[in-house]
Write a structure and sequence with these properties.
The model has no long low-confidence stretch (mean pLDDT 97). α1 packs across α3 (70-76) and α6 (185-197) runs parallel beside α7 (211-221). The strands form three sheets. A seven-stranded mixed sheet has the order 6-5-4-3-2-1-15. Strands 7-8-11-12-13-14 form a six-stranded mixed sheet. The chain has a two-stranded antiparallel sheet with strand order 9-10. The chain contains seven helices and 15 strands. It has helices at residues 37-46, 64-67, 70-76, 90-98, 155-165, 185-197, 211-221, and strands at 2-7, 22-25, 29-31, 56-58, 81-84, 102-105, 111-113, 116-118, 125-126, 129-130, 136-140, 143-148, 171-177, 202-206, 233-235. By secondary structure, it is an alpha/beta fold. β5 (81-84), α4 and β6 form a beta-alpha-beta unit.
Length: 236
Amino acid sequence: MRLDIVYDNSADPGFKSGWGFSARVAGSLLFDTGENGRPLLTNLKRLSASLDEIRAVAISHDHWDHAGGLERFLKKRPGLPVYVCPGFGPRFYRFVETIGGRPVSVSPGMEIVPGVLSTGEVAGTYKGMPMPEQALVLKTDNGISVVTGCSHPGILEMVRAARRIVPDTPLHLVLGGFHLKDHAEKDIRPVAEALREMGVRLVGPTHCTGKRAQEIFREIFGPRCLAVAAGTTFEC
């Protein structure tokens, strides 16, 4: 299953970077939209992605750097279902409707497009306030891959949520924001080691993971720690 990185803090030559994250999954699902719709659309075009092929959008959590490009995208593709957590609340649901989308509440294991499931809402916090979040679970011949937005509940909890959906299946790839940028090394290292002990084959820490955390993941996973940037494409 193909995974295209559309939006990230860093970018391959010819692509635009910006704070936030977005990925195109299986050619037909847009997961998050970065902070700004203009570079989002530019990068989709650069990836030779036909907007007509995108059949749904999923938003990991209600933050500007993951939903900021949604309005501009929906102007190009009005009427699409937008899969969101129930805990985003009425304000976000009204926002999606106002800009031309159809909000759909996710539940654990809900299939969004063939082979791509939602973890459902996972409880998290940000600056002392509730921050519910979902991740994607990609079912492939290699096992499952977990794609996260920011992992406010913790990257380990996001992976555990995925394993509850698809148990007893190899963990092929965990990629996305791990939200470790403000953590001390003594707190980061056990997280990376725990993912390794869980049997994760490949990791792709990016966005809000933080520079030092990325260095630690490269140290622990070696060549199995993937470089991620806007324009990067993976086969999961």
